[in-house]
Amino acid sequence: MGRDYISSQKTAAVIPCYENGNVVRLISADGEQTIINKSIKSVLNDMQKSNNLDIKALRENFGGITGRKNIIPIPLSFECVLIPIKVRKALAVNDGSYAYVNLCYIEEIHERDGCKVSLKCGTIIKSLETKKTIQKRIDIANIMKERVAKGFLGDDFIREVAIDIAMEYDKPATKADIAIIARELLLIKESLLQNYYKKD
Question: b/e string for 79-96 if b means 16 or more Cβ within 10 A?
Answer without folding.
Answer: bbbbbbbbbbebeeeeeb
